[in-house]
Fold GGDEF domain-containing response regulator.
Amino acid sequence: MIKSPSQATILIIDDRRENIDLLTAMLDQAGYMHLIGLTDPCAVHDHLSPVPDLILLDMRMPQRSGLMVLDDLNHALGEHCPPVMVLTADNDLNLRNQALCRGAIDYISKPFDYDEVLQRIHNLLQLQLKTLKERDQAARLQMLVNKQTSTLRALSLTHPLTGLPNRRALLDAAERQLMRGSVTVLMIALDGMEAVTQHQGHLMTEALYKHIAELLANSTVARSHRVGVWDSSRLVMLIEGEGDDAAQKAARIHRLINGHHTLEGRLMFLHCHIGISRAHSENEDVAQLFRQAILAIPTNEQPVAEYQPELDNKAQREHLIRTELGAALQSNHLSLVYQPKWRLDGGLLVGAEALLRWQHPTLGAISPAEFIPIAERSADMMQLGDKVLMMALEAVAQWRARALVDECFHLSVNVSAQQLRHGFAESVLARCHATNIPPAIIQLEVTESALIQQISVALRELQQLREAGMHIALDDFGTGYSSLSYLKQLPVDWVKLDRSFIQDLATNASDKHLVGSVIDLAHGFGHGVVAEGVEKVSQQQVLQTIGCDQVQGFLYAKPLAITDFEHILSQGRHAMNAEISPTAH
């Protein structure tokens, strides 16, 4: 490494000998001792060993332009290319900018000004010298650090809780594998860890995570594959090669992890969803490979899914919706519609389910099936649930003030898992009190999956609400994992049969027998039964014969805007005494 600018080796490339002689004379007079002149730009490769400390490069040369020489230098030396100062005329502004874009550091204008040339070269070499000194010092320090921290480096690639490779190690391993061939990533998402933290504490969450990680790492499905930790709720399994059986292995992992786990005498439940992505050559971005695996993680009941390019568009839309949802909560773009509920024995209107709708000013109507899951994965769900409850209570308050409903009417409001926290019952009852709504008019609908995630808190909060007179309904009954075992202990008054059980009810004897058994079981526990998604008279007739209590669905009415629903209410309960029929709207 040079110790002063005057010791620098300077290569001057110019097809005109007189220019080289002029610059050489100027630099020689200033004390520069190692000067090389080159009139043939095609021979530049012969003067790159050793690499000069500075190159002065003319832009306009007939044999090979300065821009082409710059490309040659970058290709040959890459990041080791020395600083290049281009020689251009004052009117060559565009050419000068192109050179700077190719990595040239500075320029010297023609005709040469003695003081400017020397000062620019001196400044650049001083900066280069300083940079080289700093780089040399850093290299020496790095050598010392590397010698003393081999253990720390190993630790930096290891997840401290599980002892498995961490994210950095997984990225490195995938990159090395791509140099040899293909690699397949299985991104394993553990849903339910947050609930464990809320109700069991961080120590139990860590113990559960370690248990799951060890369970996977020691399983036969992970044998010969690298298992590691991506973050606090996701594990990774790397498969070398195309991973033709990746989907089958993912299904085995799902069976291994999904469900109940007993740890230190405590029962905990986890959902497991797995996304799969593949890369085939070292030209592919490793970080992108893992991002695609995350995008592929199913957000529905499907346990395993593979990355598809359209998921990128879906992710962009999801990000847009998540961003816009915050603004929607502060605007009037969110509203409720109401789907009536009817008694099967007599056809009385007994209530309605409040359903959320979002009319975005530019995106149009956004389905709740799309934005509710997005809200549930963000902090917006609490606010969203709060807003729905308040809008529902305000609507009931108006109906009561206008004598459109009585004490026998109930309005159902859906509750998410995020809402079922400590203090939820007190908050709901306080809002009922503030709007002067008797709790018995409100029915909260809770899915089984939400109850399982928050089981200890849910039991206390829902029992408190029930004791205050509020009705609780178990929504989407039969689509979960342990409906029968939970049905006895949960503080519910109503069971809602999922539409999937109703669809083939009139044509499938097994479905009819199953639904009949569920109704008998619910009645045995003292619960009423509501069938949702009723769309055909034949379905209604079967439900009547097997003892279903209430129904809702397109056969009777679609979800109605508030004015349309108030029109039904204004007809009075007596007007609904006739037998329910497809025209009884």
Remarks:
- The longest helix spans residues 114-148.
- Residues 574-585 have pLDDT under 50 and may be disordered.
- The radius of gyration is 36 Å.
- Residues 90 and 109 are 6 Å apart (CA to CA).
